[in-house]
């Protein structure tokens, strides 16, 4: 059953006195995001950081010491293919620029509603890294921190990974003992977000010759199916609920189009969530769909998967499959309704919010649905109980493109391949085969 929506307090004006803060208390907001290579030279080290994350490549306990050499190997093998994609969109990811614009817009929106908060950006795999943001938060003397992962739906591989890193930082630095923090683990059900999505979809539908006959095609980033079916990742459930709620909102506005949901950007040959976007496009084309509106749904900024994969690869595939008219809904980026909803999320978490008469508890609090809101530990306790220490991300100045470092990286990687091959042959469990056919 889809949860009902959380009431938004859009339009309510908060003054600092209202926020329940003492004059010495300062509110920071931390926006968590993935990060992306800014230049083609960043692509391989960015991929290294991604594959060195044990929330992305989940090795069995006996093989964990191979995480970094394997990351080195896979990132080196994949870099040429990824670089082609980044080259096609201008030589780098727009993610940092857009996330910083979102942070600025959020700070302005909060200011307009009476809260002087500083908004920080912390990326998981590229600059500005999460630990740099936390260092700044410490230096700025923040007393309250509201953490918002910029992923509407929770996945172990995205929000979960960033929260694990954050937990590690909290635990290793006593300076954070007094920092009161609250995490909004997922927020796909919020009225502001749903309205913003419905508005964008409606606008694009109206550009078609026969808007009501257009297939609304939601394309979400995939994850390996084992995350959901073995590891308890709520991602697929949240995605399906989210799509259902957007379609409800469209129905309220008089749109009853046919719709479908598929998963894109599979990496490696293990099974990912199905249906796959490319297979679904072919199927829709074969069944006679002539008008298709693609809706990227798992991410709120334009990025390589929207600008290259959807706009170029999937568009071409759709036309080849018989689709005559194609459209794509833009990412939310700094959409005013969306930014206003982010501001509402922050304001609802202020010290005064909970005891305030008339306070609207979040849907998670009232119905115990989805990841709990609250401290990082509470959220990870729900989804990632046996978490381990995370490898720190690579720093450019530590990367050491020196001859000796390269030689040793290469040797370690080769040794890793040999050991993994041996493990594969002896255990029959394919770790390597899962990742090398990229
Ligand atoms: C909700 C969004 C995302 C999920 C879930 C996710 C899982 C996931 N991703 C990979 C591997 C790669 N992801 C890459 C780029 C990338 N991933 C997301 C979002 C999610 N990933 C975004 C927004 C981006 C693009 C960032 C940008 O630079 O614009 C890449 C690199 C690009 C490429 O080579 O295709 C890889 C690799 C895995 C393995 C995974 C789940 C386990
Ligand atoms: Fe990804
Ligand atoms: Fe991709």
From TrEMBL:
Its EC number is 4.98.1.1. Keywords: Chloroplast, Heme biosynthesis, Iron, Lyase, Plastid, Porphyrin biosynthesis. Catalyzes the ferrous insertion into protoporphyrin IX. NCBIfam families: hemH. It comes from Coccomyxa viridis. The keyword Cell cycle does not apply. Belongs to the ferrochelatase family. It catalyses: heme b + 2 H(+) = protoporphyrin IX + Fe(2+). Pathway: Porphyrin-containing compound metabolism; protoheme biosynthesis; protoheme from protoporphyrin-IX: step 1/1. The gene is g11875. It is found in: Plastid, Chloroplast. PROSITE patterns: FERROCHELATASE. HAMAP family: Ferrochelatase (MF_00323). It holds the Pfam family Ferrochelatase. Its main location: plastid. It is an enzyme of class 4 (lyase). It comes from the Eukaryota. This is Ferrochelatase. Gene3D superfamilies: 3.40.50.1400, Chlorophyll a/b binding protein domain. InterPro entries: Ferrochelatase (IPR001015), Ferrochelatase_AS (IPR019772), Ferrochelatase_C (IPR033644), Ferrochelatase_N (IPR033659).
């Amino acid at each position: 059953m889809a949860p009902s929506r959380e009431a938004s307090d859009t339009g309510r004006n908060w003054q600092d006195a209202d926020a329940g803060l003492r004059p010495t208390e300062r509110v920071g907001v931390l926006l968590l995001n993935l990060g992306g290579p800014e230049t083609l030279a960043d692509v391989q080290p960015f991929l290294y950081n991604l594959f060195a994350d044990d929330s992305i490549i989940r090795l069995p306990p006996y093989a964990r010491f191979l995480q970094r050499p394997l990351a080195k190997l896979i990132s080196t093998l994949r870099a040429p293919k990824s670089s082609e994609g980044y080259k096609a969109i201008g030589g780098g990811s727009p993610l940092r620029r857009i996330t910083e614009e979102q942070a600025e817009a959020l700070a302005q929106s909060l200011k307009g509603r009476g809260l002087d908060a500083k908004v920080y950006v912390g990326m998981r795999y590229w600059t500005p890294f999460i630990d740099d943001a936390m260092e700044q938060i410490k230096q700025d003397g923040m007393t309250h921190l509201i953490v918002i992962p910029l992923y509407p739906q929770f996945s172990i591989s995205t929000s979960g990974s960033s929260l694990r890193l954050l937990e590690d930082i909290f635990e290793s630095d006593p300076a954070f003992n007094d920092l009161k923090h609250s995490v909004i683990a997922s927020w796909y059900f919020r009225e502001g977000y749903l309205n913003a999505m419905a508005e964008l979809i409606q606008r694009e539908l109206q550009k078609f010759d026969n808007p009501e006959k257009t297939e609304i095609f939601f394309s979400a980033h995939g994850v390996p199916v084992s995350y959901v079916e073995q590891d308890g990742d709520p991602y697929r459930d949240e995605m399906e609920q989210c799509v259902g709620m957007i379609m409800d909102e469209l129905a309220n506005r008089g749109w009853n189009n046919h719709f479908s949901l598929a998963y894109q950007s599979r990496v490696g040959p293990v099974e990912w969530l199905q249906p796959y976007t490319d297979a679904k496009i072919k199927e829709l084309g074969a069944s006679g769909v002539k008008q298709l509106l693609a809706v990227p749904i798992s991410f709120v900024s334009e990025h390589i998967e929207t600008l290259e994969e959807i706009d170029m690869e999937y568009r071409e595939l759709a036309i080849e499959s018989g689709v005559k008219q194609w459209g794509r809904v833009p990412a939310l980026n700094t959409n005013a309704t969306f930014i206003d909803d982010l501001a509402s999320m922050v304001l609802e978490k202020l010290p005064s919010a909970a005891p305030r008469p008339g306070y609207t508890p979040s849907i998670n609090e009232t119905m115990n649905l989805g990841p709990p809101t609250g401290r990082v530990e509470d959220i990870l306790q729900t989804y990632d109980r046996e978490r381990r220490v995370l490898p720190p991300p690579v720093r450019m100045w530590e990367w050491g493109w020196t001859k000796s470092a390269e030689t040793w990286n290469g040797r370690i990687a080769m040794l890793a391949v040999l050991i993994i091959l041996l493990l594969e042959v002896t255990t029959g469990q394919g770790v390597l085969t899962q990742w090398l056919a990229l």
